[in-house]
Q: What sequence folds into this?
């Protein structure tokens, strides 16, 4: 429920960037359902990034700003893609910060996407907001640069929150990739280990970190998989919007992380595959070159716990991975059936005409 500073006769406004994506579109629908006026920002949206005056007008008087803008990381980390991934996050966040700073009536809360990948490869203990250890390398440098831009300067009237999201389970790129691997018969445990040397994970930005060579670990398939259902992402955004004492980095992840072996076993059950071929790192490098994406998605041990949310009283609707993946697979099946049925109806109508 909305609990901001508007009077009962005013419609609250949310400025939403990146609404064309998987997560942004779900959040946009939720705000519309809550009675908000939604002002969209994007390259092809009513408010464009290259028009700072329009962006300033959009932010002025808004109650909430939510930013999911940024090039998808579901790609190969070529030099061009690396640069675009970083720039698309830092530059859009900077543009919003400038607009908020100049506003006479700035938003009371600004939530900006970030990533749970900011934490180190962890096999020994979980990372929380107050005890987590920041990692190194390309993905971490992107995240730290992103958050540095968000929290730069003073915005005394605006509460700022970085949404450190784990891998989002839903009809999005990460889940589709995992389902694809499983259907291809590669739904067995995925083992990190030696890989052909490459430099795609080297550091980036003003403060690059890590080695020039891709790191690898002997995880024996026990690397942690932190995740969150799309419904819980939407619910967490609403919760943070309405709970005034939540600020700074907030982990958006199920309180029940999985291990890779359990993840792949659950995926096989969800898609009806009895067996799956175990994959060594070099095999994944080849498979994900074809897709194309990066093995880091399933090989980095992400062990993240949402301490700030649960301490504040947030309850997850989908804390169990098997239930969450089954729910997503069922929804996708229904959506495909509906789409196919609609196409058949359109074709029949067209022929009848």
A:
């Amino acid at each position: 429920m909305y609990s901001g500073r508007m009077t009962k006769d005013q419609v609250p406004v949310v400025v939403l960037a990146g609404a064309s994506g998987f997560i942004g579109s779900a959040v946009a629908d939720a705000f519309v359902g809550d009675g908000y006026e939604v002002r969209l920002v994007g390259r092809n949206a009513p408010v464009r990034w290259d028009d700072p005056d329009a962006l300033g007008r959009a932010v002025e008087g808004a109650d909430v700003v939510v930013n999911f803008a940024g090039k998808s990381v579901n790609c190969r980390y070529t030099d061009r893609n690396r640069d675009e991934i970083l720039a698309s996050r830092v530059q859009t966040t900077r543009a919003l910060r400038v607009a908020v700073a100049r506003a006479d009536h700035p938003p009371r809360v600004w939530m900006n996407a970030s990533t749970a990948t900011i934490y180190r490869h962890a096999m020994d203990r979980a990372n929380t907001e107050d005890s987590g250890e920041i990692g190194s390398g390309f993905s971490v440098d992107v995240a730290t640069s992103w958050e540095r831009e968000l929290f730069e300067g003073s915005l005394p009237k605006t509460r700022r929150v970085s949404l450190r999201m784990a891998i989002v389970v839903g009809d999005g790129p990460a889940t589709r990739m995992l389902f694809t691997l499983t259907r291809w018969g590669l739904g067995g445990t995925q083992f990190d280990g030696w890989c052909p040397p490459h430099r795609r994970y080297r550091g980036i930005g003003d403060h690059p970190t890590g080695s020039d060579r891709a790191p690898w670990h002997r995880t024996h398939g026990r690397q942690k998989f932190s995740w969150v259902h799309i419904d819980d992402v939407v619910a967490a955004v609403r919760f943070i919007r309405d709970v005034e004492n939540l600020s700074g980095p907030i982990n958006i992840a199920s309180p029940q992380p999985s291990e890779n072996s359990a993840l792949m076993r659950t995926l096989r059950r969800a898609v009806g595959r009895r067996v799956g071929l175990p994959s060594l790192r070099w095999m994944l490098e080849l498979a994900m070159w074809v897709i194309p994406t990066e093995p880091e998605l399933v090989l980095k041990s992400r062990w993240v716990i949402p301490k700030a949310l649960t301490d504040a009283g947030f309850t997850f609707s989908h804390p169990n991975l098997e239930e969450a993946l089954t729910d997503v697979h069922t929804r996708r099946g229904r959506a495909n059936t509906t789409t196919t049925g609609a196409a058949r109806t359109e074709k029949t109508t067209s022929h009848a005409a």
Summary: DSSP finds eleven helices and twelve strands in the chain. Confidence is low (pLDDT under 50) at residues 1-7, 342-353. The CA atoms of residues 290 and 333 lie 25 Å apart.
